[in-house]
Amino acid sequence: MSDIEKRFDKAVKTAKLGLSEDEHDRLYQQLGVFLNWLNPLLEVDTAGIEPILLGHNSVNVLREDCARKGVMAELQEAAPEFDQGFYRVPPIIE
Fold it and tell me: How far apart are CA 26 and CA 47, in angstroms?
């Protein structure tokens, strides 16, 4: 058994996928196809190439993410419901 097969079996067992033998074999074959596609990409030398965040020459216009003190009255007005110091939100589980 190759190293890749051992790692694959360990991942399947860790994820508790409960695959049948056919599903296991099919998934392993699909992983092999993916790795064959991925290997040439991993061999490309990218040393010295700056990573890009955007695929175009635009500037990020989002605000700086920093904490700031809010005015409680304004924060309460922005909330649909505010009760005894807590924001009330609709239940997500019934």
Answer: 36
Distance CA 49, CA 56 (A): 16
Q: Which are the contacts of 53, defined by CB distance < 8 A and separation ≥ 6? A: 60
Q: Which tokens belong to 70? A: 């809010």
CA distances from 91 to 12, 66, 82, 94 (A): 35, 29, 15, 7
| Three-class secondary structure of residue 87 per DSSP | strand
Strands (E), 1-89: 82-83, 86-87
pTM of the model: 0.48
Tell me the per-residue pLDDT of 43-85, one tens digit each, with 9 for 90 and over: 999 999 888 776 777 777 777 888 888 888 888 888 888 888 8
Q: Which two tokens stand for residue 4?
A: 């890749």
